[in-house]
Design a protein that fits this description.
Layout: E1 14-16, H1 27-36, E2 44-48, E3 53-58, E4 69-71, E5 79-83, H2 89-100, E6 104-108, H3 119-139, E7 147-150, H4 154-158, E8 163-166, E9 185-188, H5 196-201, E10 205-206, H6 215-228
């Protein structure tokens, strides 16, 4: 296993625990490993605290014992924010952005968003998306869980450094930020597009290709662009 990049598949399944000093598997994870993956006592697995540390361990009905703890160096953080979309599409976007290695994922209501979440629905979706991100992080063997910003305002996102709006057919405007200030955040608008006010709040632009993408496709494409350039 490569301690500098994180655990690979040769170390067995990858699972998150609260602490690597006294790691105890979540009952649901333990059941999945024992019943679905059919791990037996002594089989290898890797554990992570979700904050960049991981270790090799052995499966047992008792608490796992770490063999050696590794710290994976953090890359420059990148984030994708996307306007609310219908149905289960937010789950798909969060899953894929987590697999790609995006550090922060924001879900916001744009001026022209059709979908709106009230407080109860937002809390419910927050819990569901946290589960989706955790499962995707285990599958993709990440050692850092992404930060989920559910219900954050567009104004807050637009005020972050190195942020840009995804805008079909456009790119960094003339006289814009220097190449030494690469884009670290990309915001994806709703089907109705950005309003003039939103464009004024975030004048920086990036293109995600020559075609018009669905919102969920654009968010995933933004994740690929950001993580592949680090």
């Amino acid at each position: 296993m490569d301690a500098t990049s994180g655990p690979d598949g040769r170390g067995g399944p990858h699972v998150f625990v609260g602490s690597l000093e006294a790691p105890v598997l979540d009952p649901g994870d333990h059941h999945h490993l024992a019943k679905s993956l059919r791990l037996r006592d002594g089989d290898p697995l890797t554990l992570s605290d979700g904050r960049g540390h991981w270790c090799a361990a052995r499966f047992d009905v008792r608490p796992e014992v770490c063999l050696e703890v590794f710290m994976v160096p953090a890359l420059p953080p990148v984030g994708v924010g996307f306007a609310l979309v219908k149905g289960s599409k937010p789950e798909l976007v969060v899953q894929k952005l987590t697999e790609l290695g995006v550090d922060a994922i924001a879900v916001f209501a744009a001026d022209r968003s059709v979908v709106r979440w009230d407080d109860a629905r937002q809390a419910k979706n927050q819990r569901r998306l946290e589960i989706v991100a955790r499962e995707a992080a285990m599958q993709s063997r990440r050692v850092r869980l992404p930060e989920l910003l559910i219900g954050v305002s567009f104004v807050d996102l637009a005020g972050r450094p190195s942020v840009a709006l995804a805008d079909p057919g456009s790119e960094e405007p003339a006289g814009g930020p220097a190449p030494s200030d690469p884009v670290r955040w990309i915001l994806i608008g709703p089907e109705g597009g950005w309003t003039d006010d939103e464009r004024q709040r975030c004048p920086r632009r990036v293109s995600l290709g020559p075609t018009i993408l669905r919102a969920e496709t654009a968010a995933i494409a933004a994740g690929v662009r950001l993580t592949s350039n680090r």
